[in-house]
Amino acid sequence: MQNRRQFLTGSALAFGGVALVSWLRYPAPKTAEAGTGKPQGGKVKVVQFSDTGQKIGVVVVDKIVKTDAEWRQQLSADSYEVTRQAGTERAFTGKYAETHDNGLYRCICCDNALFSSSTKFDSGTGWPSFWTPIAPENVRTKVDLSLGVERTEVLCAECDAHLGHVFDDGPEPTHLRYCMNSVALKFIKQA
Question: CA distances (Å), 28 to each of 80, 142, 160, 167, in order?
Answer without folding.
Answer: 17, 11, 11, 22
